[in-house]
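User: Second chain of the day. Same drill as before.
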Amino acid sequence: MKGNWLEIYDILSYCISNEVMESIYQREIENCFKILGWRKTNNTLQSQITIPIGSNNFIRPDIVLQKENDSGTCVPLIAVEIKRPDNIKRERQELQLFSYMRQLRLNFGLYIGEKIQLFYDTQDNKENPIANPVPVLTVNIKDTDNNGEIFCELFTYSSCSADRIESFCKDSLKRKQEYSRLKERISDFVLDAEENIKKLIKDMLLTEGFEEERIYKELSKIDIHVNSRTVESKIQHTVRQLEATATNHIADSNSSQTRDTTRFSFDGGIHYYNKRKFVLEIIKHYVNTHSGITFEELEKVFYPEIFNRNRGVVKRLTDVQKMISQSEDVKNRYFLDSDIITLFDGTQIAVNNQWGTRFPKFLAAINGIYTVVSNNDYKAFKLLERNDKNGK
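Assistant: Same format as last time:
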């Protein structure tokens, strides 16, 4: 299949380099599918055909690839949405492809523009049955990468089938999910890195016969810091500074206390709240002022990583209830009962109430959305103001 991909790569990369018109790009993409064995002469490759939907509507996909069923009739297998080779894919363009897939009752769709993407509609998402299809393969046309060969293997006419594509999609999703779980586990471990690493050291030393009391004594003299080697955004850099500042603030201002008692306001000082209540009131206010907001849209503003991916800032009540069934302690970690928030579509959400030293992350996330003041000097505010002035 390498030869097929190199030939297709030559055609598509030429189109990208010369920024050809969409109509010319479509014609060249049709030629690419012909290299893989699809033909207009036998109706396996259909271009810009009008397909009736109901009595008054119709759709016109750019390309539909078809294969014969058991009775010898050509039936749609894959819908293809084509955009200019210099296009930057937008959500609206994805939704157009998803519409074709669902109208034609297809599990697979191809987007071809500045890249090639295979989308898969799982059809069995019980938690979110209206979830959009997900990308399972991306081919960067600018590179002669291995994914191009995989694309050719999947879509060579002689061996292409719904079962074969579905098997690939499921395997790809499984690998993605495993990778996501791995990243989440590492993220959770690193979140409390010092405690977790000291536990590993303690367990190792205990097996070597050292006394537990002496181990604790020596480990108490050690500070452990773990940093990611990936390039981090400015806001992540600010968050780390805020966390360090907040920790110092708590130590400085509460030497005779066990916790920080600073209270915060987002309405100009009319009402002040402790950290956990402040987060709840902010989210209630945001929902009330964005009456048609969905859970997915709310989670983009108050994204899970402000706390961590598992616990999040906001969770669907049904998800929290599942977590409680697995661990009774979870019910103490969210605002429940009268503090449950109901969105316009009936979705009930619960807000995380465990903030402490993670609170500066929340302040960084809402900086620019709300103006926050405190009843005490809070060093994290000074850092935010300095970063704003410096354009960070």
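Residues 231-235, 249-258, 386-392 have pLDDT under 50 and may be disordered.

User: Great, on to the next one.
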